[in-house]
Amino acid sequence: MEEIKIQSDKPSDEDFSNINLRLLDLSDVDDFLEWAMDPKVSQFCSWHTFTSKEQAMAYIADFIVPHPWFRAICLGDRAIGTISVSQNPGIGDSCRGEIGYVLGSKYWGKGIATRAVKMVAADIFVEWPHLERLEALVDVDNKGSQRVLEKAGFVREGVLRKYFLQKGRARDMVIFSLLSTDSQVNYFMYS
């Protein structure tokens, strides 16, 4: 039996190849609210689900804008999530950065978060040459985020029991890492 291929002339709703990172600012508040008001998205975040535009504006102005490395994950020019790298201020911690990200639920499972993490990994070790290690802490129940990190080449190192207080509950966290010397970092830089 001959295989029949049906091709639609209608373009897909979204072209996910146009992913880029840029600074997030107050003009992005409406896009920000699309995912920040979604309980599915905020479930594993340190922040509670946003309930108003004013609350979101204050968060963007007070936390995101002054942050040293916080970017919008954009589809074209539209912010559909965020990604950041933070450093701990402690003595001996300057060689480590922690990556965190959030993405609107309608974009889950499309490779967007993985692509954004790879983009950051390609840049952060160049922008911050003192970094030796990029790590991520993920709730043990957040299987999707764990998969993102695995696909981006991070190594699962173990579980930190009752490590993070999230919305009043001590949670077990899986720790992942990517080292500046890992071969995939060079691959991300040149691909």
Annotate the secondary structure layout.
Elements lengths: L18 E5 L5 H8 L2 H4 L10 H12 L5 E6 L2 E9 L9 E8 L8 H16 L5 E7 L3 H9 L3 E12 L2 E11 L3 H7 L2
Parallel strand pairs: 4-5
Antiparallel strand pairs: 1-2, 2-3, 3-4, 5-7, 6-7
Protein name: Acyl-CoA N-acyltransferase protein
GO molecular function: acyltransferase activity, transferring groups other than amino-acyl groups
InterPro entries: Acyl_CoA_acyltransferase, GNAT_dom
Structural class: alpha+beta
Q: How many β-strands, per DSSP?
A: 7
N- to C-terminal distance:
40 Å
| Fraction in beta strands | 25-35%
Largest sheet: 7 strands, mixed
Keywords: Acyltransferase, Transferase
Domain N-acetyltransferase: 19-172
GO molecular function, one term: acyltransferase activity, transferring groups other than amino-acyl groups
Protein name: Acyl-CoA N-acyltransferase protein
